[in-house]
Design goal:
By secondary structure, the chain is mostly helical. The protein contains 17 helices and 8 strands. The N and C termini lie far apart (90 Å).
């Protein structure tokens, strides 16, 4: 945005009455608003030309002052250009703040990103999970590589950010890093959080994401069916390793525990509920929300099976759960040996509990929400992928209701017909209509 008028002048200002030596002042005028300040230099008014706004003569002291004023003039024009490029309006006060060093230091993007991550690290377990920190760390690493790839720099300033920068980063993630659409948008969302933080802290005033649009691809993450769960439970593997992994997966299917919650599950988390049965009463590691899950017979059987397992005794846990990477790696073997045409992951088990085990057996969705430790029913709705058998059962019930209603409607209403006949006869009589 260009200013209507911009003026700059150097002049001498009397410091003491009768003195030839006066202070050299600078005046900046933008759109009729004036700001002035001292240059901290003093000069003899008899050796000053106000038309040129410079010292007279060729002596060394005059050359020195004129060089200083020329340098200051150049700096002011640089400041003016910088403000224009930033997209902010020029004001006399803003130019003067730059001259006097009263502006906020130029903040670098990656420096602020690292500051955010350090703060998040110090709050682990106090509102943030390690997985969240890991995702922001990966995002920062991608952004660092992009800046080096695109600009051959170690960092950029927030003032360098624009819609073009955001789109270029998105393109880099999709092409160079070969990220999927949803993964790309997750990284973009993490980066946006850092930018919003900078806006809130008044580091920048313009949001480079304002006109950025991205739409996530809706993925259907299906649980395993009742029949597939039945086959998995009864499959006999030749290696103990795969039997353990299968049992942990099945335990998750009947409890809804996420991988990390199953990994950390301890004996003290299993307590007697109000109904006299055993429940898991704990908090989700992800968001510290409490969840209470009654233990079904299938889950109790697995707990009993591993109560004396060496790894459980060593760690004080209920199950001998491997690392998440190994669990998912071994589950691929399990799926292949069971003849499944899809991959098994630890999160498929949680979805199976939310859909196949609970919702498909008429457990209300608000109850499933509590069992899964979700903050809202909206989260649980993503798990409500109904089996074909359930759809068929519900449609059969609906069909019976419709047939019943149809049969009831088809029976003649004798009283209504008699009333109608009387009305017809009255109309005929009124208008002398013969039969």
């Amino acid at each position: 945005m260009l200013e209507n008028s911009f003026g700059m002048a150097f002049f001498l200002k009397t410091a003491h009455k009768g003195s030839k030596i006066r202070a050299v002042h600078l005046r900046i005028t933008v759109d009729g608003i004036t700001k002035e300040t001292s240059t901290k230099r003093r000069w003899d008014f008899t050796r000053w030309d106000q038309k040129t706004e410079r010292a007279l003569g060729t002596k060394e002291d005059a050359k020195s002052l004129n060089y200083f004023l020329d340098s200051l003039t150049f700096k002011i024009h640089e400041i003016k250009t910088e403000i224009i490029h930033s997209g902010n309006p020029i004001t006399a006060e803003k130019v003067m703040d730059h001259i006097l060093g009263r502006v906020t230091p130029r903040v670098k993007v990656l420096e602020e990103f690292q500051k955010h991550n350090d703060e998040m690290k110090s709050l682990l377990g106090k509102g943030y999970a390690k997985g969240t920190l890991d995702r922001f760390t990966i995002t920062k690493n991608h952004l660092t590589a992009f800046i080096n790839f695109k600009f051959k720099k170690n960092d950029v300033e927030f003032s360098d950010l624009s819609l073009e920068f955001v789109k270029d980063f998105e393109f880099y993630l999709r092409t160079v890093r070969e990220c999927s659409n949803n993964t790309t948008l997750k990284y973009i969302a993490n980066f946006k959080k850092i930018v919003i933080r900078a806006i809130d802290n008044e580091i920048i005033s313009k949001d480079p994401f304002k006109n950025f649009k991205g739409r996530k691809t809706k993925l259907v993450k299906k649980p395993i069916t009742t029949q597939e769960l039945y086959e998995l439970e009864r499959h006999c593997f030749t290696t103990e390793r795969l039997n353990v992994v299968r049992d942990v997966f099945v335990f998750q299917c009947y409890t809804g525990l996420a991988y990390v919650d199953a990994y950390q599950l301890k004996r003290k988390d299993i307590k007697e509920g109000i109904d006299g049965n055993l429940w898991i009463m704990s908090e989700r590691q992800k968001n510290n929300s409490s969840f209470n899950v009654p233990l079904l017979p299938q889950a109790l059987k697995i707990i009993e099976k591993y109560k004396d397992h060496p790894l459980c005794l060593q760690r004080g846990t209920v199950l001998p759960v491997s690392s998440n990477q190994k669990m998912n790696e071994y589950l691929k073997e399990v799926a292949n040996l069971c003849g499944f045409s899809f991959a098994l992951t630890t999160h498929v088990a949680r979805r199976t509990f939310g859909s196949t085990v609970t919702l498909n057996n008429n457990v209300p969705i608000n109850v499933v929400k509590e069992l899964l430790g979700h903050a809202s029913v909206k989260q649980t709705e993503a798990y409500a992928i109904t089996e074909q058998a359930t759809i068929g059962r519900e449609m059969s019930i609906l069909n019976k209701k419709l047939n019943k209603n149809e049969a009831r409607i088809s029976k003649p209403d004798i009283a209504a017909l008699n009333r109608l006949e009387k009305e017809i006869q009255a109309i005929k009589k009124k208008y002398n209509i013969s039969s």
